[in-house]
Design a protein that fits this description.
Blueprint: E1 5-12, H1 26-29, E2 35-39, H2 47-59, E3 63-67, H3 85-105, E4 112-113, H4 117-125, H5 127-140, E5 145-148, H6 153-161, E6 165-170, E7 174-175, E8 181-182, H7 192-205, E9 207-208, E10 216-217, E11 222-226, H8 232-245, E12 249-250, H9 255-263
Parallel strand pairs: 1-2, 1-11, 1-12, 2-3, 3-4, 4-5, 5-6, 6-11
Antiparallel strand pairs: 7-8, 9-10
Helix pairs in contact: 2-3, 3-5, 4-5, 5-6, 7-8
């Protein structure tokens, strides 16, 4: 199915105190996206940066999302922390609470929750943890979208439970033949034209070329670029220009979009 509208999100506010890390380009990046995944203090972010990120998002008509991670500032949340399903989800609830209060301070609400890094991948592979996560979201934030991979336990369980869910396509990550993302860090991964062409093909044809085989189908409602990816601004500029030149509008996902994702056949 050719997409006429697509969301673009970016992980934002990923500094801490005087350490800027991935937040150096946030002000410029915020002008190029439709949804922001704002770090909530465990892998990155602090109260002042959360507040600033929300004000920047609202100033650019960008939808707000919580970006909770493992409690791992030193490893930027990209190291697996051994924890029970309940511990993982309680940490997510804690972080949602923090960012949700800052949103309320500015008269806004959260559009979505997108786990970060190793926590995202841990939930994707763990049926029990994803079940606890989705059931908890249905209690504390029943209308708040969950952002996740299509090829994940998180997506499958959210779809089964009828919770609004948005599948992501990663512009700056490779895929394997199962539809899962893989972290390669090859310099060519960050070529703006290559990334834009790959995204456009995914939007027009619903296909992506994995690192270990032939083309696979990929379903998604949102495109993600990481703020700490080398050349993230240039990547997003190229992606936006390519999509709009091909008649594809950039906008946050709607409730109808999320419901359609719920009803899509799980991978």
């Amino acid at each position: 199915m050719v997409r006429k509208t697509i969301d673009i999100s970016c992980d934002m506010g990923e500094g801490f105190g005087p350490w800027q890390l991935g937040s150096t380009n946030d002000e410029q990046l915020m002008t190029l996206i439709s949804s922001a995944n704002i770090a909530t203090g465990f892998h990155a972010g602090d109260p002042n940066l959360m507040d600033l990120s929300i004000r920047r998002a609202l100033g650019n008509n960008v939808a707000l999302g919580a970006h909770p991670g493992f409690r791992d500032l030193q490893g930027f949340g990209r190291r697996r922390v051994e924890a029970s399903a309940e511990e993982m989800v309680n940490d997510i609830v804690y972080q949602i609470g923090a960012i949700r209060e800052f949103a309320r301070l500015h008269g806004a609400s959260l559009q979505h929750v997108k786990p970060h890094g190793a926590l995202y991948m841990a939930l994707a592979a763990d049926e029990a943890a994803s079940t606890v996560f989705v059931n908890t979201m249905r209690r504390i934030a029943p209308d708040t979208f969950i952002y996740c991979m299509g090829a994940s336990a998180t997506y499958r369980i959210a779809a089964e439970q009828g919770h609004p869910v948005v599948r992501e396509f990663y512009a700056d990550r490779e895929y394997d033949t199962t539809g899962k993302i893989v972290f390669t860090r090859k310099p060519d991964d960050y070529n703006p034209k290559k990334a834009a062409d790959r995204v456009l093909r995914a939007c027009l044809e619903g296909k992506v070329r994995p690192i270990d085989g032939e083309d696979i189908d990929v379903g998604f409602e949102s495109i993600c670029v990481h703020s700490d990816t080398p050349g993230s601004v240039e990547l997003l500029v190229a992606i936006r220009e390519t999509l709009t030149a091909n008649g594809i509008e950039i906008a946050p996902p709607s409730a109808a979009t999320a419901r359609a994702a719920d009803q899509a056949p799980p991978r």
